[in-house]
Amino acid sequence: MTPTSNLKRPRHPMPDDIRLVLESRALMDDYRARPDYQQNDYIGWITRAKRPETREKRLRQMLDELERGGVYMKMAHPASRKTE
Predict the structure, then answer these.
(1) How far apart are CA 79 and CA 70, in angstroms?
(2) Rounded to the nearest 10 degrees, how much is the dihedral formed by the CA atoms of 12, 32, 84, 73?
(3) Which Pfam families is this protein grouped with (predicted)?
(4) Are the beta carbons of 67 and 22 closer than 8 angstroms?
(5) Are 54 and 42 contacting, i.e. CB atoms less than 8 angstroms apart?
(6) Residue of 19, 16, 58, 22 whose CA lies nearest to 41
(7) 49 and 58 in contact (C-beta within 8 Å)?
(8) Which listed residue, of 15, 28, 43, 52, carries a Cα 20 to 30 Å from 2's Cα?
(9) Which DSSP string corresponds to 34-79?
């Protein structure tokens, strides 16, 4: 998230493992291109998981959505659609 974010709710810090996987899959730019609220929602949603399996499933979903584009939390998000 940018330091000039307009978020009205607490920001979730990005865990190192999530940062590393975004960087290793070359998805950090796609992540940063999303609105601040989406970045925050993804991180909060992933880190709130109680079970490691759930956390991993949520992380995979975020990565897949960022890679595919055009979708956010299984909903259409035309602003992030990628051209092929």
Answers:
(1) 7
(2) 20
(3) OmdA
(4) no
(5) no
(6) 58
(7) yes
(8) 52
(9) S-HHHHHHHHHHHHT-SSHHHHHHHHHHHHHHHHH-SEETTEE-GG
Please name the residue that has the structure tokens 């970045």.
39
* pLDDT score at 83: 78
Query: In the numeric block, which tokens belong to residue 19?
Result: 């940062």
- Residue written as token pair 């399996």: 53
Predicted pLDDT of residue 2: 45
Burial class (CB in 10 A: 0-12, 13-18, 19+), 65: buried
Which tokens sit at 47?
């880190």
The CA distance from 44 to 77, in Å, is: 19
